[in-house]
């Protein structure tokens, strides 16, 4: 099909495009824009049209796809983004409801990690955790204060490695 024949046939079918465009857009100006975009795409992609196929259906498909693309762009553009100064409220903990399940899992993991820590490191760590001072732990366990500090440090590293999933 020559360019002149193609232009003539597109011109004859263009009168059917306006009602379809009105049905899609529900606005006269938007419908005119959609018809114009459809015709521009049809002329620029004339080589993609196969002779012998339904030109009217091809034009309607172009229009429908153009409308869908424009609608998706409009939705993305009109997506609400809160630009207020109180953005911290959106992520505040006041709006979060906790059911305790996460805490239960964490407590189980902590208990397991504590059981897997050697006793010589676990006891000074637990005493320190309960509020004892280094020198009180050293006196109670009859150890040098440097050894107490070292064992507590090793216990922390061990627990940290066992509980790395919570980092």
From TrEMBL:
Residue ranges of every copy of the RNA polymerase sigma factor 70 region 4 type domain listed in the record: 121-159
Residues in RNA polymerase sigma-70 region domain copies: 14-73
Record's keyword terms, sorted: Sigma factor, Transcription, Transcription regulation
InterPro entries: RNA_pol_sigma-70-like, RNA_pol_sigma-70_dom, RNA_pol_sigma70_r2, RNA_pol_sigma70_r4_t2, RNA_pol_sigma_r2, RNA_pol_sigma_r3/r4-like, WH-like_DNA-bd_sf
Keyword Metal-binding: no
Residues passing through the membrane, by range: none
Family: Belongs to the sigma-70 factor family. ECF subfamily.
PANTHER family associated with the record: RNA POLYMERASE ECF-TYPE SIGMA FACTO, RNA POLYMERASE SIGMA FACTOR RFAY-RELATED
Protein name: RNA polymerase sigma factor
Protein's organism: Aquirufa regiilacus
